[in-house]
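Before a colleague's protein record goes any further, I have to sign it off. I want your independent view on whether this chain really folds as the tokens say. The record follows directly below this note.
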Amino acid sequence: MLTNPAAFFDRVRALDLLGPVLTQSEVDGCSHKLAAFGPAGWGIGWAAYGLATSYHETGHTMQPIKEWGGEEYLRRNYDITGRRPDEARRMGNTQPGDGVRYAGRGDVQLTWKKNYQRAQDQLGEPLVANPDLALRPDLSARIMVRGMEQGWFTTRRLDHYAPRESGRLDRAIYVRMRAIINGKDKADLIAANADAFEDALVNGGWTV
């Protein structure tokens, strides 16, 4: 959906988002996201914020990651044997070990068995039996699209802030969009990065 991919990546590098020499992993990471955003009809505003979100959540790698923290940390936070057993059960983690098994994975962390099941039902991949599939870059990007559109992560959705076909958006809108993923955490920083990715998308001739 980029009419001039070279111009997009040149601008990403010039804005010091990635690089200074782009690795194949960085290029592939951006490309997987854009390949999911295009068929979903995401305009420049949504696409820019999606890229900025992945950039932040993956530690600037643009590749899906596993949630940081060891098994004991994951057990405490997500398992029925941890500190929130009622929440664990409500979210589908009903067996000891589910906290580690269904911990966060992806560009945007897919967490809890209930959400792996929802992603499996919608995307047709056996994520409950094989949660590590959420680390596959193309599938992770599709999970990100559905999750940000439908409010999987915090119940807030992209269309709460701007229409799907939006062009360039005000910085203040990008700041508010952080609520889709994680409240107000680093909202200003991610909004600034969305501005930069927006500029690169314009340079690359993004169209849907």
